[in-house]
Amino acid sequence: METKLKIELRTSPHLKQTMTVEQIMRNVVYALLPVCAFAVYAFGISVLALLTVTTLTCALGESLFCRLSGKPNTTNDWSIVITGLLLGLTLPPGFPLWMAAVAAVVAVGLGKALFGGLGYNVMNPALVGRAFVQAAFPVAITTWTPAFLDKRFTEFIPSTLTAPFMQPPALGDWIEQARVDAFSGATPLALQKFEQIITPASDLFTGMTAGSAGETSALIIIAGGLYLAARRMMDWRIPVGVLLGAALTSLPFWLMDSVQYPDPLFVLFSGGLMLGAVFMASDMVASPVTPRGVWIYSLFIGVLTVIIRLFGGLTEGVMYAILLGNAISPLIATVTQPRVFGAAGKGPRT
């Protein structure tokens, strides 16, 4: 009897170890939990509600889109939990919950389901949702509250519970009543860009600053990245390349004018660069798989982030840098594909 060879084709991520997608995604969630815990500790019950809403809405959206498309329910592979947590961590602590739910629906619908689900998404779904609310709700997405307020575990930030399509209340009086004098509501990036005030590196590293819910503590984010790299569940070259690109780009500007431009250490630890480099740029599906492609992709993101920060109208650029990096990832992968063994020097690439 003739035996036919069965070849099974799969989409990325392509696993080299005897490990399932579910196991990898679950470990990414484990690495994110300390970041989430510190965000709740720093900003209180508003962030807890924010993370709950984004994660549950993403899960419900995934289930609904799977049902509508006639595909098996994929909510048990943990990837949608990562999307929900990352989305919540990129939003301001007092972001209205109904807006967060909209961002989650967009993240799942436009960022993932539209392309066919896990393994087919072109861009990081959480950043797609974040980019949408950046354009749709520009005031809410740039309204910050200080960290470590006295009332953070007993009261919601007033804007958190804003009704749909209603104007969020002014936060000034509430912040003045609840604030800790040692902390400012302005983000380190805003202070540096508009007032040339540099936040101490120690505060940036440990998370003693204002900002999006999950971007404050570089120390905890790095620890999560090291855990994933040690378990070979993340390509360590991607975060290293992003941070290296950002540092090398900012260094000459700082050397030319240390008053106007921040030093590389500030660039690395401020804003969402660390969170983006470790947990978002390293998306297995939206990043290249060739060694040279990984370095080109990651360096591009780091360089573009600094260019947007220094010369753009926004204080932060990591979201757009990663999305653009995702967009050109297929081209990078194609250009950097190794030649077929034994092919001529100008032969086709595979």
Question: Could you explain the architecture of this structure?
Answer:
The protein has 350 residues and is mainly alpha-helical. It has a single domain, classed as Ammonium transporter fold (Orthogonal Bundle). It is 56% helix and 0% strand. The protein is built from 15 helices and no strands. α2 (45-69) runs parallel beside α4 (97-109), α10 runs parallel beside α13 and α14 (291-311) packs antiparallel against α15 (318-335). Mean pLDDT is 86; it is low at 180-184.
CATH class: Mainly Alpha
Low-confidence runs: 180-184
CATH topology, what is it called?
Answer: Ammonium transporter fold
Query: Mean pLDDT, nearest integer?
Result: 86
Order of helices and strands: HHHHHHHHHHHHHHH
What structural category characterises the helix and strand content?
mainly alpha
CATH architecture term: Orthogonal Bundle
